[in-house]
Design goal:
mainly alpha
Length: about 210
């Protein structure tokens, strides 16, 4: 039998999953009402307010949950002791698989990144900066970047993060029609990252 806290956590998850399912099925998050979310979650509308003040707060929780989980898993993917190619391949292959197995999360993220409220857009930018900061921390000890200032290294890592994330919607759409596109996405992204990496290694901060 579930405890009260377990039931509360399950209802919270059901509400978030309902919003993600609606978005994944083509609905615009901005047009989804909390009543629709509650109905699809199988709870009464008043239950919604026990977990979120409004739809924006629900969206913020989705962004936060995905960011925390994805950063943890990407850190694990970067644990490879090999050189750049091995670490990059691990990370990109993991990311592409994760995106394709959690499509609704990323349809939501892509949608609100450009069409969400200012608060939601800011939250996504914050998550991307977290990724770049963690990558910069992992990269700082490498001798190849001894000539790069901390500020320049951060720009390099932001460019790497943006490159991985920029074609997510293409990955979602094309992989659904042709699963082999996952390999195409991986190789194209790795080539872009190699070009960034090669240029960055020769960068001299002033």
């Amino acid at each position: 039998m579930q405890t009260r806290d377990e039931k509360k956590a399950q209802t919270r998850k059901s509400l978030m999953d309902a919003a993600l399912n609606l978005t994944g099925n083509g609905r615009n998050f901005a047009s989804i009402s909390l009543r629709e979310v509650a109905k699809n979650a199988g709870v009464v509308p008043t239950s919604f307010y026990r977990h979120f003040t409004d739809m924006e707060e629900l969206g913020l929780n989705i962004i936060d949950d995905l960011g925390l989980l994805l950063r943890k898993l990407m850190r694990q993917a970067r644990q490879n002791e090999g050189y750049f190619d091995a670490r990059a391949r691990n990370s990109v292959e993991f990311y592409s698989r994760y995106v394709c197995s959690h499509k609704n999360y990323f349809y939501f993220m892509e949608q609100v990144k450009t069409g969400g409220t200012p608060t939601l857009r800011k939250a996504i930018r914050k998550e991307l900066n977290y990724f770049a900061n963690e990558l910069a921390s992992d990269t700082r000890p490498l001798k190849e970047f001894s000539n790069a200032s901390d500020a320049d290294l951060m720009i390099i890592c932001q460019l790497i993060v943006d490159t991985v994330f920029e074609n997510t919607i293409d990955l979602l759409d094309q992989a659904e029609e042709d699963p082999a596109y996952i390999d195409t996405y991986t190789e194209q992204t790795l080539k872009k990252l190699r070009l960034i990496w090669l240029g960055a290694m020769h960068w001299q901060s002033k």
